[in-house]
Amino acid sequence: MAKKATKKAKPSPERRSACPIACALDVLGDKWTLLVVRDLMSGKRTYGELADSPESIPTNLLADRLKRLVAAGLADKRAYQDNPPRYEYTLTKRGRELYPVLDAVKEFGLREFPGSEARIDFSKQANKK
Questions:
Q1: Per-residue pLDDT, 3
Q2: How far apart, in whole angstroms, are the C-alpha atoms of residue 40 and residue 89?
């Protein structure tokens, strides 16, 4: 009996390859996205709180990164005021799965870049819902 040929996974049109690292980097791999995720992990929820990050993310980039995080299912957007419209953002379960990733990046930064400071303990945050 002949074996069925298995199809190789093809990247979706918005992905550069089927490599899982490349797929993750398509969503997370720019200068700002993980910093926005970090701030959501630290409890910031509103656009104003997120814009007040010490790294001074440009507002057009913050708006874009929040849209991308929501579209990727990593964050939720909920209206808390109608006029003018105001929204709050929270990480989804999928977004909270990034806690160990950010914790590893934080530990690398603390070890390799003297003078860097941790502002959040991701290992404790990972246990919160």
A1: 52
A2: 7
* Chain length of the chain: 129
DSSP track, 10-74: PPPTT-S-S-HHHHHHHHH-STTHHHHHHHHHTT--BHHHHHT-TT---HHHHHHHHHHHHHTTS
Domains and CATH numbers, the chain: 20-92 (1.10.10.10)
Q: Does the bond joining 85 to the residue before it have cis omega, within 30 degrees of 0?
A: no
Percent of the chain whose predicted confidence (pLDDT) is above 70:
83
pLDDT tens per residue across span 70-92: 999 999 999 999 999 999 999 99
